[in-house]
Amino acid sequence: MRHVVVISTGGTIASRWQGDGYAAEAAGREVLEAGAVPEGVQVRVVDLFTVNSSRLTTDHQLRLLYAVHEALADPEVDGVVVTHGTDTLEESAFFVDLFHHDPRPVVFTGAQQPLDSPEGDAAGNLYDALLTAGSGRDIGAVIVFAGQVFAARGTVKQHTVDARAFGAPDGQPLGRVDFGRVRWSRRVPRHEPLPLPARTGSIPRVDIVMHHSDGDAVLFDAAVAAGARGIVLVGTGAGNANPEVADAVRRAVGAGVHVAVSTRVAAGAVAPLYTGGGAVDLAAAGALLTGALKPGQARIAVLAALLAAGGPDRGPDDADAGTLLRALLAPAAAPQRAASDLYLVDGVGH
């Protein structure tokens, strides 16, 4: 018997029609009872909160992180499933993954159709997530959706309403769920987990500012003035802006703000190719390039580094956050074991 804890947080998978739109309202047990549980899996449900995921805050994500660690404190638990709204699922999954140090998996899933839809995807996605949570090992936090298993890092929501909502623009799935089995195809290297942040205390502000034609430094400077300790600059192309923005980045970094550069392009990595305010100049101004991390997850990397460095009480000039962030953005070490040694499905390596 495999023991899995399901942590319910709301989202479409827990939503019903409210007369003028859908909203999360169902408890975790109701979500679980809407479909079948895989044979040999025993489930315990934790109702953490019930919200549409566009309303999530860092406080919610910290509560979720600690709920996951508390569930895994029980040695009888084989894995955790988190039911979550799809709007910010990629952010919460990556946040949990950055702090996850246990070989047992944390599996995020959700739905594109509400719970009361007769042809919905909630039951199937939850079934696949329970299978994955009861079998995978050393995979960190993953996203299971529409029969595919993706690593949390790099996976984003790619379609607003389609059932196959998630994908990795710069990678392939770790595996697939079909005919009641998880079939693994590859593994990806993972970074060393960050130390757990404090449960309470003020939360550092981290903003996202997008560059565009006619872009200037007004919104970037406004984020600094609002007290941002971190800013993700979403550049054009391979991470480019203009000289005015590059000067604003230099001022912000000089004031102790952590600046990271992502791209608004769907696939591909940020690269120092262009001057004239491009990624070459942004890096010279002190910004860190985020590789293939897209803006939402780049923000989570900055936020997690700040939290892991001790929280905002240590001050905006804390160098530890910069060191941690550089490590998170550097390429992870290659796996030490072959995929066939890593994954277990029903006790058999695959």
Features:
350 residues; alpha/beta; Rossmann fold; 8-stranded mixed beta sheet; 4-stranded parallel beta sheet; disordered C terminus
Task: Please provide a written account of the structure.
The protein is of the alpha/beta class. The protein has two domains: 2-190 and 340-349, Rossmann fold; 206-329, Rossmann fold, CATH 3.40.50. Helices cover 28% and strands 23% of the residues. It is built from ten helices and 18 strands. The protein has helices at 28-33, 58-72, 89-98, 122-133, 218-225, 243-254, 279-284, 295-308, 319-329, 339-342, and strands spanning 2-10, 15-17, 22-24, 41-51, 79-83, 106-109, 141-145, 148-151, 156-157, 166-167, 175-178, 181-184, 206-210, 230-235, 258-263, 288-289, 344-345, 348-349. The chain has an eight-stranded mixed β-sheet, with helices on both faces. Strands 13-14-15-16 form a four-stranded parallel β-sheet, with helices on both faces. Strands 2-3 form a two-stranded antiparallel sheet. Strand 9 (156-157) and strand 10 (166-167) form a beta hairpin. Residues 311-317 and 336-350 have low confidence and may be disordered.
Concise overview:
With 350 residues, this protein is of the alpha/beta class. It has helices spanning 28-33, 58-72, 89-98, 122-133, 218-225, 243-254, 279-284, 295-308, 319-329, 339-342; strands at 2-10, 15-17, 22-24, 41-51, 79-83, 106-109, 141-145, 148-151, 156-157, 166-167, 175-178, 181-184, 206-210, 230-235, 258-263, 288-289, 344-345, 348-349.
